[in-house]
From TrEMBL:
Source species taxonomy: Bacteria, Bacillati, Actinomycetota, Actinomycetes, Mycobacteriales
Name of the protein in its database record: DUF2470 domain-containing protein
Ranges of residues in domain DUF2470: 19-92
InterPro entries: DUF2470 (IPR019595), Haem_oxidase_HugZ-like_sf (IPR037119)
Coiled-coil ranges from the UniProt annotation: none
Pfam families, sorted: DUF2470
Amino acid sequence: MTDDNSSGPAQFAPDVVAAVLAHMNDDHAEDSLLICRTLGDRPDATSAVMAGFDAEAATFDVSVPDGVVVVRLAWDRPVRDRSDVRVAVVAMFRAAQEQAGRITR
């Protein structure tokens, strides 16, 4: 984050964004796919790449049979720093797991 004193949305330093995206896309691709299939209402998704995020939401590039679509999903809370992003992503993943469990039952 570059400015803790602003009243606007948090802005994340490029190195923080790059690190979060690399971690999500290298280590949690299947988690992103589940998130987009369930919370993003894209059950036809074949892959999902976290493309960015800000204080309000995460953005994914989602492969579907017709190409790639952008899915933007709001966090369950505003995020202000890297640790907040982690907490928000985990909450999003758990919500996706819960929804997927309801869908498959």
